[in-house]
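I am still learning, so would you mind making up any protein sequence you like and the tokens describing how it folds?
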Amino acid sequence: MKQLADFVKQRRKEVNLTQEEFAERAGVALTVVRKIEQGKTNMNLDKVNTVLRMFGHELAPVNSKDLSIQDG
């Protein structure tokens, strides 16, 4: 979650938005942005993806079986 937190915070700052401004533009509550940037682990994936879509990214669940096939 630290990488996600750092990514969102860095990208938000690159576009010169406060947490409040960013939350408003992303269409999420300010608490969602704060929780992401604080690295909270109990997050709603839909809300996280709403934020990440602002940067053209998205998270998705990955099956560990699929990862071992790619590594092998």
